[in-house]
Amino acid sequence: MNPSKIRNFCIIAHIDHGKSTLADRMMEITGTVSKREMKAQLLDSMELEREKGITIKLTPVQMHYKGYELNLIDTPGHVDFSYEVSRSLQAVETAILVVDATQGIQAQTLANVYLALEQDLYIIPVINKIDLPAADVEKVKKEIINLLGCREEEIIGVSAKTGLNVEQVLDAIVDRAPAPTEQKGNELKALIFDSYFDDYRGVVLYVRIFEGSLNKNDNIRMMAAETNGIALEIGTLNPEMRPKDALEEGEIGYIVTNLKTTREAKVGDTVTLQKSPATMPLPGYKNVLPFVYAGFFPVSNEDYKTLKEALEKLALSDSALQFEPENSPILGFGLRIGFLGLLHMDIIRERLEREFNLDLVVTNPSTNYQVVMNNGEEIDIKSAADLPDVSEVKEIREPWVKGEIILPKSMIGAVLNLIVEKRGMQKNLGYIEDRAVIDFEAPMANLLTDFYDQLKSITSGYASFNYELSNYRAEDLVRVDFLIAGHKNDALSVMCHRSEADAIGRDVTKKLKDIIPRQNFEVALQAAIGARIIARETIGAYRKDVTVKIHTGDRDRKAKLLDKQKRGKARMKRFGKIDIPSDAFTVMLKRN
Asked: Is the whole-model pTM more than 0.85?
């Protein structure tokens, strides 16, 4: 098709502001999907996406409206998938910014707007849910005008659920959105903005053709991964696959390849032809690395092989997923897995439990640390158990994040206190109408556990939070070990700042006391930094009344029986084994 008749656009918004519902109405109005085939969140194909009401995997779809070809990409809204969103934005010229009329601009809205402005996209502002009684359209219009500097008449008020004014959005895309710019070169340059593994067909790439054209059965090359493949089938998505003989400049479509894993064709990579390769790849590619790690152990060691095979299957479609074997004296064999964030971890855990019927124990999530040794060597550790002997360590660096919180003005004080509690630093404070925007920096490890829950609690759910990785900083970090009946358990060890160690030690030992069942002997729970004990709790022993069988008041006989019981308990304390329940390994997830 003539590039002047093509419009490539994506929908960006905060979670639950109505991206997928708006996409549904557009497909209905353009006749892409018949009413009989229509269902809510049509582009969200995963069961988890429908349950949680969020988009996890982005999906492209091609629509035809008034003689124009409209290519839509429905993007994820969560911070964990911000790199995927940035690649989707690079694949289009226009972004539809959807803002909920009842909630206004949220943290992820701002983050996505900044990404869109970086890519120099044309933004069409849309206010959704205007039919709800709680909608405050005028207030949200002022927020959007302050943010984008647009005119009031450019903002379109819609109800994605009922379809009210959705045609106006399609008209705005046709009339106002720019067409793809024509390139002069003939070298093929196609951006991979998503990829997944199909059990029957191999790796499928979603691409935007920036320059040149691609034909069926062409030999292709991924420039960053330096891998070769064959375009076995190419075509567009409506939303099901429709094969074509060629994809031309400006179009968005799919390529079915003969590749065996998405690691050979990562998101952001440039596809070119083997016979006449491009000299320079498209800009913006980076290798996405996980920075949240957790140990996954099957409850039964017999399921270890099943767990490993299940993760290998999931990793075929998720190139950001990294794992390696881990062994714990108590939990047995398991895997230490790296994730993009806590939502990514939650999704993988649920998929393993549902799709592969696995019963799992998940250890406390941690981040990775950079350790500089006395001899100048630098090593990366993914858990506290991997920390070398502290006498050989020069410094330990931990990852810090840049965060952004949007909240009502009246709640600023409580949120600033929470940031300080997490060793964070406020960098800037701004305002959008009646709400404040707090920019801050904080250690990643302190935001991993319950920061988001605490933020929602103290702001009654009105605050929204977004973050991105900043850099690594050297801090006074220590490893806190937990000893149960004198035995150190590596799976419970944590890295923390020295100033927080005592409080964490006391808190965790108290929680372990509630979780670990009582034994026939006294059990000591201790927190330690090296050889120094910083906290202790004691689980009292069960006491059997051994004097109940004596019917006389003979004092010597009673003393003899009690002494025998005491010696037996002391012997049991030396040799007794303690069964640690799986709850003990997630005690850090909810500290309070």
From this structure: no
